[in-house]
Design goal:
Order of helices and strands of chain B: HHHHHHHHHHHH
Strand content of chain B: under 5%
Number of helices of chain B: 12
CATH superfamily of the domain at 94-255 in chain A: MetI-like
Number of strands of chain B: 0
Structural class of chain A: mainly alpha
Number of helices of chain A: 13
Distance between the termini of chain B: 41 Å
Largest interface: A-B, 50 and 45 residues
CATH topology of the domain at 94-255 in chain A: MetI-like fold
Oligomer: heterodimer
Structural class of chain B: mainly alpha
CATH superfamily of chain B: MetI-like
Helix content of chain B: over 70%
Shape of chain A: flat
CATH class of chain B: Mainly Alpha
Number of domains of chain B: 1
Distance between the termini of chain A: 14 Å
Radius of gyration of chain A: 24 Å
Helix content of chain A: over 70%
Radius of gyration of chain B: 22 Å
Strand content of chain A: under 5%
Number of strands of chain A: 0
CATH architecture of the domain at 94-255 in chain A: Orthogonal Bundle
Order of helices and strands of chain A: HHHHHHHHHHHHH
Amino acid sequence: MFKYFLKRLLWMIPIVLGVAIITFTLLYFTPGDPAYIILGSNATEVELENLRETLGVNQPYLVRLVKYLGDVFLRFDLGTSYSTKTSVTGELIYRLPNTLLLTIASLAISVLIGLPLGVTAAVNQNRLGDRVSMLLALLGVSMPSFWLAMLLVILFAVKLHWLPAMGVGGLKYWILPALSGSTGGIASIARQTRSSMLEVIRSDYVTTARAKGVKERNVIYGHALPNALIPIITLVGTQFGMMLGGTLILENIFGIPGVGSYLTTAVSSRDYPVVQGGVVFLAICFSFCMLMVDMIYALVDPRIKAQYEGKKGK
Amino acid sequence: MANTKTSTAKKKSHFRMVLRQLKKNRAAMIGLAIFLVEVAIAVFAPALMPYGYTDADYTALHQPPTARHLLGTDDMGRDILSRLMYGARYSLVMGLTSTAGAMFLGICVGSIAGYFGGQVDNIIMRILDIIQSIPGMLLTIALAAVLGTGVDKTIMALSVAGISGYARLLRANMLNVRNLEYIEASQSINCSKLRIIVSHMIPNSISPLIVTATMSVASTIVLAASLSFIGLGVQPPSPEWGAMLAGGRAWIQQYPHIVIFPGLAIMITVLSLNMLGDGLRDALDPKLKN
Protein backbone atom coordinates (compact mmCIF):
# COMPACT_ATOMS: atom_id res chain seq x y z
CA MET A 1 0.00 0.00 0.00
CA PHE A 2 2.76 2.37 0.99
CA LYS A 3 4.59 1.48 -2.20
CA TYR A 4 1.54 2.45 -4.25
CA PHE A 5 1.27 5.83 -2.56
CA LEU A 6 4.97 6.45 -2.96
CA LYS A 7 4.84 5.57 -6.65
CA ARG A 8 1.87 7.83 -7.18
CA LEU A 9 3.59 10.65 -5.28
CA LEU A 10 6.77 10.35 -7.35
CA TRP A 11 4.72 10.51 -10.55
CA MET A 12 3.62 13.98 -9.42
CA ILE A 13 7.09 15.39 -10.07
CA PRO A 14 7.14 15.05 -13.89
CA ILE A 15 3.49 16.13 -14.07
CA VAL A 16 4.08 19.34 -12.14
CA LEU A 17 7.28 20.05 -14.09
CA GLY A 18 5.45 19.38 -17.33
CA VAL A 19 2.63 21.73 -16.44
CA ALA A 20 5.13 24.50 -15.68
CA ILE A 21 6.98 23.89 -18.97
CA ILE A 22 3.81 23.82 -21.06
CA THR A 23 2.39 26.96 -19.45
CA PHE A 24 5.68 28.80 -19.81
CA THR A 25 6.01 27.78 -23.45
CA LEU A 26 2.42 28.80 -24.23
CA LEU A 27 2.84 32.25 -22.76
CA TYR A 28 6.32 32.60 -24.25
CA PHE A 29 4.71 32.74 -27.67
CA THR A 30 2.16 35.34 -26.66
CA PRO A 31 2.53 38.43 -28.80
CA GLY A 32 3.28 41.68 -26.96
CA ASP A 33 6.39 43.15 -25.38
CA PRO A 34 6.30 42.95 -21.55
CA ALA A 35 8.38 46.11 -21.22
CA TYR A 36 5.87 47.98 -23.35
CA ILE A 37 2.95 46.56 -21.33
CA ILE A 38 4.55 47.77 -18.07
CA LEU A 39 5.80 51.18 -19.15
CA GLY A 40 3.06 52.11 -21.61
CA SER A 41 3.35 54.19 -24.76
CA ASN A 42 5.21 57.13 -23.13
CA ALA A 43 8.40 55.19 -22.48
CA THR A 44 11.55 55.86 -24.52
CA GLU A 45 13.40 53.12 -26.39
CA VAL A 46 16.25 53.25 -23.83
CA GLU A 47 13.88 52.77 -20.91
CA LEU A 48 12.22 49.87 -22.69
CA GLU A 49 15.58 48.28 -23.44
CA ASN A 50 16.71 48.69 -19.82
CA LEU A 51 13.57 47.09 -18.50
CA ARG A 52 13.87 44.20 -20.97
CA GLU A 53 17.37 43.69 -19.64
CA THR A 54 16.21 43.70 -15.99
CA LEU A 55 13.31 41.37 -16.69
CA GLY A 56 15.55 39.12 -18.73
CA VAL A 57 12.97 38.88 -21.52
CA ASN A 58 15.53 39.30 -24.31
CA GLN A 59 17.31 36.10 -23.35
CA PRO A 60 16.79 32.92 -25.36
CA TYR A 61 13.89 30.58 -24.64
CA LEU A 62 15.86 27.82 -22.91
CA VAL A 63 17.71 30.17 -20.59
CA ARG A 64 14.44 31.78 -19.53
CA LEU A 65 12.73 28.40 -19.13
CA VAL A 66 15.45 27.04 -16.87
CA LYS A 67 15.46 30.24 -14.84
CA TYR A 68 11.67 30.12 -14.53
CA LEU A 69 11.66 26.49 -13.41
CA GLY A 70 14.40 27.26 -10.89
CA ASP A 71 12.42 30.20 -9.53
CA VAL A 72 9.24 28.18 -9.26
CA PHE A 73 10.50 24.94 -7.79
CA LEU A 74 13.56 25.98 -5.81
CA ARG A 75 12.52 29.41 -4.53
CA PHE A 76 8.72 29.01 -4.82
CA ASP A 77 8.64 32.30 -6.69
CA LEU A 78 6.03 32.54 -9.42
CA GLY A 79 7.15 35.98 -10.54
CA THR A 80 6.07 39.57 -10.03
CA SER A 81 2.85 41.11 -11.32
CA TYR A 82 3.34 43.70 -14.09
CA SER A 83 0.52 45.92 -12.87
CA THR A 84 0.75 45.78 -9.05
CA LYS A 85 4.48 44.92 -8.78
CA THR A 86 3.63 42.47 -5.98
CA SER A 87 4.68 38.84 -5.66
CA VAL A 88 2.36 36.49 -7.53
CA THR A 89 2.99 33.67 -5.05
CA GLY A 90 1.98 35.83 -2.09
CA GLU A 91 -1.19 37.04 -3.79
CA LEU A 92 -2.15 33.49 -4.84
CA ILE A 93 -1.61 32.08 -1.37
CA TYR A 94 -3.70 34.91 0.07
CA ARG A 95 -6.50 34.23 -2.43
CA LEU A 96 -6.40 30.43 -2.58
CA PRO A 97 -8.48 29.78 0.59
CA ASN A 98 -11.48 31.60 -0.93
CA THR A 99 -11.29 29.60 -4.15
CA LEU A 100 -10.76 26.30 -2.38
CA LEU A 101 -13.52 26.99 0.12
CA LEU A 102 -15.99 27.70 -2.68
CA THR A 103 -14.91 24.68 -4.71
CA ILE A 104 -15.02 22.29 -1.77
CA ALA A 105 -18.34 23.66 -0.54
CA SER A 106 -19.83 23.18 -4.02
CA LEU A 107 -18.43 19.69 -4.23
CA ALA A 108 -19.74 18.78 -0.78
CA ILE A 109 -23.23 19.99 -1.67
CA SER A 110 -23.08 18.03 -4.95
CA VAL A 111 -22.18 14.81 -3.19
CA LEU A 112 -24.66 15.29 -0.35
CA ILE A 113 -27.56 15.90 -2.74
CA GLY A 114 -26.44 14.03 -5.85
CA LEU A 115 -25.67 10.70 -4.21
CA PRO A 116 -29.04 10.19 -2.44
CA LEU A 117 -30.81 11.48 -5.56
CA GLY A 118 -29.05 8.87 -7.70
CA VAL A 119 -29.71 6.09 -5.20
CA THR A 120 -33.39 7.01 -5.03
CA ALA A 121 -33.58 6.98 -8.81
CA ALA A 122 -31.92 3.56 -9.04
CA VAL A 123 -34.06 2.00 -6.32
CA ASN A 124 -37.25 3.29 -7.95
CA GLN A 125 -36.11 2.53 -11.49
CA ASN A 126 -38.65 3.64 -14.13
CA ARG A 127 -41.06 4.85 -11.48
CA LEU A 128 -42.01 8.42 -10.62
CA GLY A 129 -39.05 9.03 -8.29
CA ASP A 130 -36.62 7.96 -11.00
CA ARG A 131 -38.25 10.06 -13.70
CA VAL A 132 -38.39 13.18 -11.55
CA SER A 133 -34.82 12.94 -10.29
CA MET A 134 -33.43 12.23 -13.75
CA LEU A 135 -35.38 15.14 -15.24
CA LEU A 136 -33.96 17.40 -12.53
CA ALA A 137 -30.48 16.02 -13.23
CA LEU A 138 -30.83 16.70 -16.95
CA LEU A 139 -31.90 20.28 -16.25
CA GLY A 140 -29.02 20.68 -13.81
CA VAL A 141 -26.43 19.44 -16.30
CA SER A 142 -27.77 21.82 -18.93
CA MET A 143 -27.85 24.97 -16.82
CA PRO A 144 -24.74 27.16 -17.09
CA SER A 145 -23.61 27.86 -13.53
CA PHE A 146 -22.95 31.53 -14.11
CA TRP A 147 -26.48 32.02 -15.38
CA LEU A 148 -27.94 30.12 -12.44
CA ALA A 149 -25.84 32.35 -10.20
CA MET A 150 -27.48 35.43 -11.68
CA LEU A 151 -30.95 33.93 -11.36
CA LEU A 152 -30.29 33.11 -7.70
CA VAL A 153 -29.08 36.66 -7.13
CA ILE A 154 -32.24 38.05 -8.75
CA LEU A 155 -34.46 35.84 -6.59
CA PHE A 156 -32.75 35.74 -3.21
CA ALA A 157 -30.88 39.03 -3.14
CA VAL A 158 -32.84 41.45 -5.31
CA LYS A 159 -36.45 40.28 -4.82
CA LEU A 160 -36.46 38.59 -1.42
CA HIS A 161 -33.50 40.37 0.23
CA TRP A 162 -32.66 37.17 2.12
CA LEU A 163 -29.03 36.87 1.14
CA PRO A 164 -26.30 39.29 0.05
CA ALA A 165 -25.75 39.55 -3.72
CA MET A 166 -21.98 39.72 -3.54
CA GLY A 167 -18.89 40.16 -1.39
CA VAL A 168 -17.28 38.02 1.30
CA GLY A 169 -18.12 37.73 4.96
CA GLY A 170 -20.01 35.24 7.08
CA LEU A 171 -21.66 32.02 6.07
CA LYS A 172 -24.57 33.71 4.31
CA TYR A 173 -22.21 35.20 1.72
CA TRP A 174 -21.19 31.70 0.63
CA ILE A 175 -24.65 30.19 0.23
CA LEU A 176 -25.49 31.52 -3.23
CA PRO A 177 -22.02 30.96 -4.77
CA ALA A 178 -21.79 27.41 -3.42
CA LEU A 179 -25.32 26.60 -4.53
CA SER A 180 -24.76 27.86 -8.06
CA GLY A 181 -21.43 26.04 -8.25
CA SER A 182 -22.97 22.74 -7.21
CA THR A 183 -25.87 22.15 -9.64
CA GLY A 184 -23.75 20.70 -12.44
CA GLY A 185 -22.08 18.40 -9.93
CA ILE A 186 -25.36 17.32 -8.30
CA ALA A 187 -26.70 16.38 -11.69
CA SER A 188 -23.66 14.46 -12.93
CA ILE A 189 -23.20 12.64 -9.64
CA ALA A 190 -26.88 11.69 -9.55
CA ARG A 191 -26.71 10.31 -13.10
CA GLN A 192 -23.52 8.36 -12.45
CA THR A 193 -24.79 7.01 -9.12
CA ARG A 194 -28.00 5.84 -10.74
CA SER A 195 -26.26 3.93 -13.50
CA SER A 196 -23.61 2.31 -11.35
CA MET A 197 -26.17 1.41 -8.67
CA LEU A 198 -28.33 -0.23 -11.33
CA GLU A 199 -25.37 -2.33 -12.34
CA VAL A 200 -24.75 -3.75 -8.87
CA ILE A 201 -28.30 -3.87 -7.60
CA ARG A 202 -29.11 -7.07 -9.47
CA SER A 203 -25.95 -8.92 -8.46
CA ASP A 204 -26.16 -12.17 -6.59
CA TYR A 205 -24.70 -10.84 -3.36
CA VAL A 206 -27.44 -8.22 -3.17
CA THR A 207 -30.07 -10.93 -3.66
CA THR A 208 -28.29 -13.03 -1.05
CA ALA A 209 -28.34 -10.18 1.42
CA ARG A 210 -32.05 -9.72 0.83
CA ALA A 211 -32.63 -13.46 1.20
CA LYS A 212 -30.83 -13.44 4.53
CA GLY A 213 -33.39 -10.88 5.69
CA VAL A 214 -31.08 -7.86 5.79
CA LYS A 215 -33.10 -4.68 6.06
CA GLU A 216 -33.63 -2.99 2.68
CA ARG A 217 -31.86 0.16 3.90
CA ASN A 218 -28.82 -1.90 4.82
CA VAL A 219 -28.92 -3.77 1.53
CA ILE A 220 -28.81 -0.50 -0.41
CA TYR A 221 -26.35 1.49 1.71
CA GLY A 222 -24.32 -1.36 3.17
CA HIS A 223 -24.03 -3.85 0.30
CA ALA A 224 -24.88 -2.19 -2.99
CA LEU A 225 -23.58 1.38 -2.64
CA PRO A 226 -20.01 0.58 -1.55
CA ASN A 227 -19.60 -1.59 -4.64
CA ALA A 228 -20.98 1.11 -6.89
CA LEU A 229 -18.68 3.77 -5.47
CA ILE A 230 -15.61 3.47 -7.70
CA PRO A 231 -16.96 5.20 -10.82
CA ILE A 232 -18.62 7.75 -8.56
CA ILE A 233 -15.34 8.61 -6.88
CA THR A 234 -13.68 8.99 -10.27
CA LEU A 235 -16.44 11.38 -11.25
CA VAL A 236 -16.14 13.35 -8.02
CA GLY A 237 -12.44 13.75 -8.80
CA THR A 238 -13.07 15.08 -12.29
CA GLN A 239 -15.90 17.21 -10.96
CA PHE A 240 -13.41 18.86 -8.67
CA GLY A 241 -11.52 20.09 -11.72
CA MET A 242 -14.73 21.21 -13.41
CA MET A 243 -15.82 23.11 -10.31
CA LEU A 244 -12.46 24.72 -9.89
CA GLY A 245 -12.95 26.03 -13.43
CA GLY A 246 -16.52 27.09 -12.71
CA THR A 247 -15.39 28.83 -9.54
CA LEU A 248 -13.08 31.02 -11.62
CA ILE A 249 -16.20 32.52 -13.22
CA LEU A 250 -18.44 32.54 -10.17
CA GLU A 251 -15.83 34.59 -8.30
CA ASN A 252 -16.33 37.33 -10.86
CA ILE A 253 -20.08 37.35 -10.37
CA PHE A 254 -20.05 37.31 -6.59
CA GLY A 255 -17.06 39.61 -6.18
CA ILE A 256 -15.07 37.01 -4.26
CA PRO A 257 -11.34 37.83 -4.10
CA GLY A 258 -10.14 34.41 -5.19
CA VAL A 259 -7.64 33.01 -7.67
CA GLY A 260 -10.20 33.18 -10.48
CA SER A 261 -10.95 36.88 -10.28
CA TYR A 262 -7.19 37.53 -10.01
CA LEU A 263 -6.56 35.43 -13.11
CA THR A 264 -9.33 36.87 -15.30
CA THR A 265 -8.38 40.46 -14.47
CA ALA A 266 -4.79 39.57 -15.30
CA VAL A 267 -5.76 38.15 -18.68
CA SER A 268 -7.61 41.31 -19.68
CA SER A 269 -4.76 43.57 -18.52
CA ARG A 270 -2.18 41.26 -20.14
CA ASP A 271 -0.42 40.69 -16.82
CA TYR A 272 1.29 37.50 -17.99
CA PRO A 273 3.31 36.54 -14.89
CA VAL A 274 0.01 36.39 -13.02
CA VAL A 275 -1.67 34.29 -15.72
CA GLN A 276 1.31 31.96 -15.88
CA GLY A 277 1.64 31.72 -12.11
CA GLY A 278 -2.08 31.24 -11.62
CA VAL A 279 -2.31 28.40 -14.13
CA VAL A 280 0.73 26.59 -12.74
CA PHE A 281 -0.46 27.08 -9.17
CA LEU A 282 -4.01 25.85 -9.78
CA ALA A 283 -2.78 22.91 -11.85
CA ILE A 284 -0.50 21.86 -9.01
CA CYS A 285 -3.38 22.12 -6.52
CA PHE A 286 -5.55 20.12 -8.88
CA SER A 287 -2.91 17.41 -9.28
CA PHE A 288 -2.69 17.05 -5.53
CA CYS A 289 -6.42 16.63 -5.32
CA MET A 290 -6.32 13.94 -8.00
CA LEU A 291 -3.58 12.25 -5.99
CA MET A 292 -5.89 12.24 -3.01
CA VAL A 293 -8.68 10.76 -5.14
CA ASP A 294 -6.37 7.95 -6.21
CA MET A 295 -5.49 7.27 -2.61
CA ILE A 296 -9.15 7.21 -1.59
CA TYR A 297 -9.66 4.71 -4.43
CA ALA A 298 -7.17 2.36 -2.93
CA LEU A 299 -8.71 2.73 0.49
CA VAL A 300 -12.27 2.18 -0.72
CA ASP A 301 -11.61 -0.69 -3.07
CA PRO A 302 -9.93 -3.66 -1.37
CA ARG A 303 -9.28 -5.11 -4.83
CA ILE A 304 -6.82 -2.34 -5.69
CA LYS A 305 -5.24 -2.67 -2.26
CA ALA A 306 -4.91 -6.42 -2.65
CA GLN A 307 -3.39 -6.04 -6.09
CA TYR A 308 -0.55 -3.95 -4.71
CA GLU A 309 -0.08 -6.02 -1.61
CA GLY A 310 -0.10 -9.15 -3.77
CA LYS A 311 2.65 -7.71 -5.94
CA LYS A 312 4.70 -6.89 -2.90
CA GLY A 313 4.46 -10.48 -1.75
CA LYS A 314 5.73 -11.86 -5.05
CA MET B 1 -16.35 -5.65 -55.68
CA ALA B 2 -18.52 -8.14 -53.89
CA ASN B 3 -16.46 -7.51 -50.82
CA THR B 4 -17.18 -3.80 -50.65
CA LYS B 5 -20.86 -4.44 -51.26
CA THR B 6 -21.24 -6.71 -48.27
CA SER B 7 -19.29 -4.35 -46.07
CA THR B 8 -21.44 -1.35 -46.96
CA ALA B 9 -24.57 -3.42 -46.52
CA LYS B 10 -23.42 -4.43 -43.07
CA LYS B 11 -22.54 -0.88 -42.15
CA LYS B 12 -25.88 0.35 -43.33
CA SER B 13 -27.76 -2.18 -41.27
CA HIS B 14 -25.83 -1.24 -38.15
CA PHE B 15 -26.48 2.41 -38.88
CA ARG B 16 -30.17 1.66 -39.45
CA MET B 17 -30.35 -0.26 -36.20
CA VAL B 18 -28.91 2.67 -34.30
CA LEU B 19 -31.29 5.01 -36.09
CA ARG B 20 -34.26 2.80 -35.29
CA GLN B 21 -33.26 2.70 -31.63
CA LEU B 22 -32.87 6.44 -31.64
CA LYS B 23 -36.26 7.00 -33.26
CA LYS B 24 -37.93 5.03 -30.49
CA ASN B 25 -36.40 7.31 -27.87
CA ARG B 26 -38.89 10.14 -27.44
CA ALA B 27 -36.58 12.41 -25.42
CA ALA B 28 -33.84 12.12 -28.02
CA MET B 29 -36.25 12.96 -30.83
CA ILE B 30 -37.52 16.02 -28.96
CA GLY B 31 -33.91 17.07 -28.42
CA LEU B 32 -33.12 16.62 -32.10
CA ALA B 33 -36.22 18.58 -33.12
CA ILE B 34 -35.37 21.51 -30.84
CA PHE B 35 -31.81 21.52 -32.10
CA LEU B 36 -32.87 21.47 -35.76
CA VAL B 37 -35.34 24.31 -35.19
CA GLU B 38 -32.51 26.26 -33.62
CA VAL B 39 -30.20 25.57 -36.54
CA ALA B 40 -32.95 26.78 -38.89
CA ILE B 41 -33.39 29.96 -36.83
CA ALA B 42 -29.66 30.59 -36.92
CA VAL B 43 -29.45 30.03 -40.69
CA PHE B 44 -32.46 32.17 -41.56
CA ALA B 45 -31.95 34.71 -38.76
CA PRO B 46 -31.70 37.76 -41.03
CA ALA B 47 -35.08 36.95 -42.58
CA LEU B 48 -36.79 35.99 -39.32
CA MET B 49 -35.56 38.73 -37.01
CA PRO B 50 -38.22 41.36 -36.26
CA TYR B 51 -35.50 44.04 -35.92
CA GLY B 52 -31.81 44.31 -36.82
CA TYR B 53 -29.56 42.98 -34.07
CA THR B 54 -27.78 46.35 -33.76
CA ASP B 55 -30.83 48.57 -34.23
CA ALA B 56 -31.02 50.74 -31.12
CA ASP B 57 -34.35 52.26 -30.22
CA TYR B 58 -33.57 54.99 -27.72
CA THR B 59 -37.25 55.60 -27.00
CA ALA B 60 -37.59 52.03 -25.70
CA LEU B 61 -34.72 51.30 -23.31
CA HIS B 62 -34.84 48.34 -20.88
CA GLN B 63 -38.38 47.43 -21.88
CA PRO B 64 -39.84 44.30 -20.34
CA PRO B 65 -41.46 41.90 -22.85
CA THR B 66 -44.22 43.65 -24.81
CA ALA B 67 -46.12 42.97 -28.02
CA ARG B 68 -43.64 45.12 -29.92
CA HIS B 69 -40.57 43.51 -28.40
CA LEU B 70 -41.52 39.96 -27.47
CA LEU B 71 -38.54 39.45 -25.15
CA GLY B 72 -38.05 43.10 -24.28
CA THR B 73 -35.16 45.41 -25.08
CA ASP B 74 -31.71 45.84 -23.55
CA ASP B 75 -29.89 48.88 -22.18
CA MET B 76 -29.47 50.37 -25.66
CA GLY B 77 -33.02 49.66 -26.76
CA ARG B 78 -31.98 46.73 -28.94
CA ASP B 79 -34.57 43.99 -29.43
CA ILE B 80 -33.47 40.98 -27.33
CA LEU B 81 -35.33 38.42 -29.45
CA SER B 82 -33.57 39.57 -32.62
CA ARG B 83 -30.22 39.52 -30.90
CA LEU B 84 -30.82 36.03 -29.54
CA MET B 85 -31.82 34.76 -32.98
CA TYR B 86 -28.72 36.15 -34.60
CA GLY B 87 -26.62 35.11 -31.61
CA ALA B 88 -27.59 31.48 -32.18
CA ARG B 89 -25.13 31.60 -35.10
CA TYR B 90 -22.23 32.33 -32.75
CA SER B 91 -23.06 29.65 -30.24
CA LEU B 92 -23.81 26.95 -32.79
CA VAL B 93 -20.81 27.75 -34.99
CA MET B 94 -18.46 27.88 -32.02
CA GLY B 95 -19.91 24.74 -30.44
CA LEU B 96 -19.88 22.68 -33.63
CA THR B 97 -16.58 23.79 -35.16
CA SER B 98 -14.62 23.63 -31.89
CA THR B 99 -15.93 20.15 -31.23
CA ALA B 100 -15.13 19.08 -34.78
CA GLY B 101 -11.68 20.65 -34.47
CA ALA B 102 -11.00 18.98 -31.12
CA MET B 103 -12.24 15.65 -32.45
CA PHE B 104 -10.12 15.87 -35.61
CA LEU B 105 -6.95 16.79 -33.71
CA GLY B 106 -7.75 14.20 -31.05
CA ILE B 107 -8.17 11.52 -33.70
CA CYS B 108 -4.81 12.43 -35.24
CA VAL B 109 -3.00 12.25 -31.91
CA GLY B 110 -4.93 9.23 -30.62
CA SER B 111 -4.49 7.16 -33.76
CA ILE B 112 -0.74 7.74 -33.79
CA ALA B 113 -0.54 6.61 -30.17
CA GLY B 114 -2.91 3.70 -30.72
CA TYR B 115 -1.34 2.39 -33.91
CA PHE B 116 2.33 2.67 -33.13
CA GLY B 117 2.13 1.81 -29.43
CA GLY B 118 5.35 1.35 -27.46
CA GLN B 119 7.52 4.40 -26.88
CA VAL B 120 5.50 6.69 -29.16
CA ASP B 121 2.34 5.81 -27.27
CA ASN B 122 4.11 6.25 -23.97
CA ILE B 123 5.38 9.73 -24.77
CA ILE B 124 2.05 10.92 -26.18
CA MET B 125 0.13 9.56 -23.22
CA ARG B 126 2.46 11.20 -20.69
CA ILE B 127 2.06 14.56 -22.46
CA LEU B 128 -1.71 14.10 -22.38
CA ASP B 129 -1.48 13.27 -18.66
CA ILE B 130 0.21 16.60 -18.11
CA ILE B 131 -2.30 18.54 -20.21
CA GLN B 132 -5.18 16.84 -18.45
CA SER B 133 -3.85 17.86 -15.07
CA ILE B 134 -4.78 21.43 -16.00
CA PRO B 135 -8.55 21.84 -15.41
CA GLY B 136 -10.35 22.42 -18.74
CA MET B 137 -11.65 25.89 -18.00
CA LEU B 138 -8.23 27.00 -16.81
CA LEU B 139 -6.54 25.63 -19.93
CA THR B 140 -9.09 27.40 -22.12
CA ILE B 141 -8.52 30.67 -20.27
CA ALA B 142 -4.75 30.31 -20.69
CA LEU B 143 -5.13 29.55 -24.41
CA ALA B 144 -7.53 32.47 -24.83
CA ALA B 145 -4.98 34.70 -23.11
CA VAL B 146 -2.34 33.63 -25.61
CA LEU B 147 -4.50 33.68 -28.74
CA GLY B 148 -6.62 36.74 -27.98
CA THR B 149 -10.33 37.38 -28.38
CA GLY B 150 -12.73 36.89 -31.29
CA VAL B 151 -14.71 34.00 -32.74
CA ASP B 152 -11.83 32.36 -34.63
CA LYS B 153 -9.42 32.60 -31.69
CA THR B 154 -12.01 31.23 -29.29
CA ILE B 155 -12.67 28.29 -31.60
CA MET B 156 -8.94 27.57 -31.71
CA ALA B 157 -8.62 27.76 -27.93
CA LEU B 158 -11.60 25.46 -27.40
CA SER B 159 -10.40 22.95 -30.01
CA VAL B 160 -6.92 22.66 -28.56
CA ALA B 161 -8.25 22.38 -25.01
CA GLY B 162 -10.50 19.48 -26.05
CA ILE B 163 -7.89 17.30 -27.78
CA SER B 164 -6.84 15.07 -24.91
CA GLY B 165 -10.26 13.58 -24.16
CA TYR B 166 -10.78 12.36 -27.73
CA ALA B 167 -7.19 11.24 -28.16
CA ARG B 168 -7.38 9.12 -25.04
CA LEU B 169 -10.70 7.56 -25.96
CA LEU B 170 -9.66 6.73 -29.52
CA ARG B 171 -6.34 5.29 -28.41
CA ALA B 172 -8.04 3.01 -25.89
CA ASN B 173 -10.40 1.69 -28.56
CA MET B 174 -7.64 1.31 -31.12
CA LEU B 175 -5.60 -0.78 -28.74
CA ASN B 176 -8.52 -3.22 -28.65
CA VAL B 177 -8.86 -3.28 -32.42
CA ARG B 178 -5.16 -3.41 -33.15
CA ASN B 179 -4.63 -7.11 -32.63
CA LEU B 180 -7.73 -8.33 -34.44
CA GLU B 181 -7.44 -10.56 -37.48
CA TYR B 182 -8.57 -8.08 -40.08
CA ILE B 183 -5.77 -5.71 -39.19
CA GLU B 184 -3.31 -8.56 -39.52
CA ALA B 185 -4.95 -9.42 -42.83
CA SER B 186 -4.59 -5.91 -44.17
CA GLN B 187 -0.98 -5.83 -43.04
CA SER B 188 -0.35 -9.11 -44.85
CA ILE B 189 -1.70 -7.76 -48.15
CA ASN B 190 0.68 -4.84 -47.72
CA CYS B 191 -1.73 -2.01 -46.98
CA SER B 192 0.05 1.21 -46.09
CA LYS B 193 0.05 2.29 -42.45
CA LEU B 194 -2.04 5.32 -43.28
CA ARG B 195 -4.60 3.17 -45.02
CA ILE B 196 -4.80 0.72 -42.14
CA ILE B 197 -5.27 3.55 -39.68
CA VAL B 198 -7.69 5.62 -41.71
CA SER B 199 -9.86 3.02 -43.38
CA HIS B 200 -9.66 0.06 -41.01
CA MET B 201 -8.83 1.10 -37.49
CA ILE B 202 -10.50 4.50 -37.08
CA PRO B 203 -13.93 3.44 -38.44
CA ASN B 204 -13.96 0.51 -36.05
CA SER B 205 -13.08 2.48 -32.97
CA ILE B 206 -14.84 5.77 -33.49
CA SER B 207 -18.38 5.18 -32.23
CA PRO B 208 -17.76 6.10 -28.57
CA LEU B 209 -16.27 9.36 -29.81
CA ILE B 210 -19.51 10.27 -31.55
CA VAL B 211 -21.45 10.12 -28.29
CA THR B 212 -18.77 12.12 -26.51
CA ALA B 213 -18.82 14.66 -29.32
CA THR B 214 -22.59 15.18 -29.12
CA MET B 215 -22.32 15.76 -25.40
CA SER B 216 -19.32 18.00 -25.78
CA VAL B 217 -20.98 20.25 -28.36
CA ALA B 218 -23.26 21.05 -25.43
CA SER B 219 -20.49 21.63 -22.92
CA THR B 220 -18.42 23.56 -25.48
CA ILE B 221 -21.33 25.96 -26.05
CA VAL B 222 -21.40 26.60 -22.29
CA LEU B 223 -17.63 27.00 -22.20
CA ALA B 224 -17.68 29.45 -25.12
CA ALA B 225 -20.42 31.46 -23.45
CA SER B 226 -18.47 31.47 -20.17
CA LEU B 227 -15.40 32.79 -21.97
CA SER B 228 -17.38 35.59 -23.59
CA PHE B 229 -19.01 36.25 -20.24
CA ILE B 230 -15.69 37.00 -18.57
CA GLY B 231 -14.63 39.05 -21.57
CA LEU B 232 -12.23 36.59 -23.21
CA GLY B 233 -14.32 35.21 -26.05
CA VAL B 234 -16.56 37.13 -28.41
CA GLN B 235 -16.65 40.84 -27.64
CA PRO B 236 -19.77 42.75 -26.47
CA PRO B 237 -21.35 44.49 -29.47
CA SER B 238 -21.73 41.05 -31.08
CA PRO B 239 -24.94 39.38 -29.94
CA GLU B 240 -23.16 36.29 -28.57
CA TRP B 241 -25.26 34.87 -25.72
CA GLY B 242 -22.48 34.90 -23.11
CA ALA B 243 -21.52 38.46 -24.07
CA MET B 244 -25.19 39.47 -23.82
CA LEU B 245 -25.30 38.02 -20.30
CA ALA B 246 -22.18 39.98 -19.41
CA GLY B 247 -23.72 43.16 -20.80
CA GLY B 248 -26.91 42.62 -18.83
CA ARG B 249 -25.13 42.08 -15.53
CA ALA B 250 -25.07 45.76 -14.69
CA TRP B 251 -28.88 45.91 -14.93
CA ILE B 252 -29.64 42.79 -12.98
CA GLN B 253 -31.27 44.70 -10.10
CA GLN B 254 -33.72 46.78 -12.14
CA TYR B 255 -34.21 44.83 -15.37
CA PRO B 256 -33.64 41.11 -14.78
CA HIS B 257 -35.21 40.15 -18.14
CA ILE B 258 -32.00 41.26 -19.89
CA VAL B 259 -30.09 38.36 -18.30
CA ILE B 260 -32.91 35.83 -18.09
CA PHE B 261 -33.50 35.31 -21.81
CA PRO B 262 -29.93 34.83 -23.10
CA GLY B 263 -29.32 32.26 -20.35
CA LEU B 264 -32.55 30.50 -21.23
CA ALA B 265 -31.38 30.29 -24.85
CA ILE B 266 -28.11 28.67 -23.77
CA MET B 267 -29.94 26.26 -21.51
CA ILE B 268 -32.46 25.15 -24.15
CA THR B 269 -29.66 24.51 -26.65
CA VAL B 270 -27.58 22.56 -24.17
CA LEU B 271 -30.62 20.63 -22.94
CA SER B 272 -31.60 19.57 -26.46
CA LEU B 273 -28.07 18.36 -27.19
CA ASN B 274 -27.89 16.47 -23.91
CA MET B 275 -31.20 14.75 -24.63
CA LEU B 276 -29.96 13.77 -28.07
CA GLY B 277 -26.63 12.64 -26.67
CA ASP B 278 -28.26 10.46 -24.01
CA GLY B 279 -30.40 8.81 -26.68
CA LEU B 280 -27.45 8.31 -28.99
CA ARG B 281 -25.45 6.67 -26.22
CA ASP B 282 -28.25 4.26 -25.43
CA ALA B 283 -28.70 3.45 -29.13
CA LEU B 284 -25.01 2.93 -29.88
CA ASP B 285 -24.24 0.97 -26.77
CA PRO B 286 -27.25 -0.95 -25.48
CA LYS B 287 -25.07 -2.37 -22.71
CA LEU B 288 -25.08 1.01 -20.98
CA LYS B 289 -28.83 1.21 -21.07
CA ASN B 290 -30.27 -0.17 -17.88
